[in-house]
Amino acid sequence: MTLSEIAKIPKQTLTIAQVSEVLDAAPQLLRLQIREDKETGINSLGFPTIVTGTRIKIPKIPFLEFMGWKDP
Questions:
Q1: How many whole angstroms separate alpha carbon 4 and alpha carbon 55?
Q2: Torsion of CA 21, 67, 45, 2, to 10 degrees
Q3: What is the pTM assigned to this prediction?
Q4: At what angle do helices 27-40 and 16-23 cross, to 10 degrees?
Q5: What is the C-alpha separation between 25 and 11, in angstroms, rounded?
Q6: Residue 58 has what pLDDT?
Q7: For the purposes of burial, counting CB atoms within 10 Å of the CB of 28, is it exposed (0-12), middle (13-18) or buried (19 or more)?
Q8: Closest CA to 37 of 24, 27, 51
Q9: Is 71's pLDDT higher than 90?
Q10: What is the model's pLDDT at position 1?
Q11: How many other CB atoms are found less than 10 A from the CB of residue 62?
Q12: What tens digit of pLDDT does each residue of 20-52 get?
């Protein structure tokens, strides 16, 4: 999945699977890092995350900005 494809997703949040594909990272490692960050109060990934119970979502616009994507 490319950043342009992510930008076209109609939802305002992304899943771990979508983000991990762009970052070329294992989804489970991202989940573990996000949970650790929430416990320690540190954001080591550089983009915001939303944790609700067992669900993790990533706000689309901040993620795209973090990745350096510019709207054509």
A1: 25
A2: -10
A3: 0.89
A4: 110
A5: 22
A6: 97
A7: exposed
A8: 51
A9: no
A10: 84
A11: 13
A12: 999 999 999 999 999 999 999 999 999 999 999
